[in-house]
């Protein structure tokens, strides 16, 4: 059975980035979008990156255009947007699919380790549930990524320890990352 370190993703220049590069680190893998209501989470991710990078945190940003076409740009345009608007310093990968037949094998693995457990509580959670129910009444039954800014947290040993939906508070992720470091 493969583990986290057996997977790789492509950098925007086509270079293959192996997850082995992050061995011994705490890693957040996140599918992102530039035109989404959750896009301001880039700011929170960058804050965590600056706070914890020297202690062993890595963030792997995978832009994805599968959710309402909210990441229409090229890899270069996406990178420019993120660095200019949010001053992101963590590595951004080539735009890719996280669901379906063309999904990154890494995402197939991540979803097999941490399935969908719901959006939690609050107005954003209710909004997401209502919106997705219209698209697919059985959306809660699959491990698929439901929307932009779904985050997986991998511990220093390569175990996928948590999945955070975009509706969950960023301070919950921050707390877990601090514990794992």
TrEMBL record:
> Which UniProt key words apply to this protein?
Oxidoreductase, Peroxidase
Membrane-spanning residues = none
Q: Which domain of life is it from?
A: Bacteria
> Catalytic residues per the record?
36
Spell out the InterPro entries in the cross-references: Glutathione_peroxidase, GPX_AS, Thioredoxin-like_sf
Q: What's this protein's family per the entry?
A: Belongs to the glutathione peroxidase family.
Q: Which organism is it from?
A: Eubacterium cellulosolvens (strain ATCC 43171 / JCM 9499 / 6) (Cillobacterium cellulosolvens)
* One GO MF term: peroxidase activity
Which GO terms are recorded in the biological process aspect for this UniProt protein?
cellular response to oxidative stress
Locate the coiled-coil region(s) and give their ranges.
Answer: none
The protein here is known as Glutathione peroxidase
**Listed PANTHER family:** GLUTATHIONE PEROXIDASE (PTHR11592)
């Amino acid at each position: 059975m493969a583990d986290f370190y057996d997977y790789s993703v492509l950098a925007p220049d086509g270079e293959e980035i192996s997850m082995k590069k992050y061995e011994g680190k705490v890693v957040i893998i996140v599918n992102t979008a530039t035109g989404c209501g959750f896009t301001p989470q880039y700011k929170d991710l960058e804050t965590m990156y600056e706070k914890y990078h020297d202690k062993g945190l890595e963030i792997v940003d995978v832009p994805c255009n599968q959710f309402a076409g909210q990441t229409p740009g090229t890899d270069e345009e996406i990178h420019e947007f993120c660095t200019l608007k949010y001053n992101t310093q963590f590595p951004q990968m080539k735009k890719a699919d996280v669901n379906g037949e063309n999904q990154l094998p890494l995402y197939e693995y991540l979803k097999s380790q941490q399935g969908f457990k719901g959006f939690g509580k609050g107005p954003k959670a209710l909004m997401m549930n209502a919106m997705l129910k219209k698209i697919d009444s059985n959306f809660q039954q699959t491990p698929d990524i439901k929307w932009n800014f779904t985050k997986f947290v991998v511990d220093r040993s390569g175990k996928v320890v948590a999945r955070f939906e975009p509706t969950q508070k960023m301070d919950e992720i921050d707390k877990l990352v601090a514990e794992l470091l």
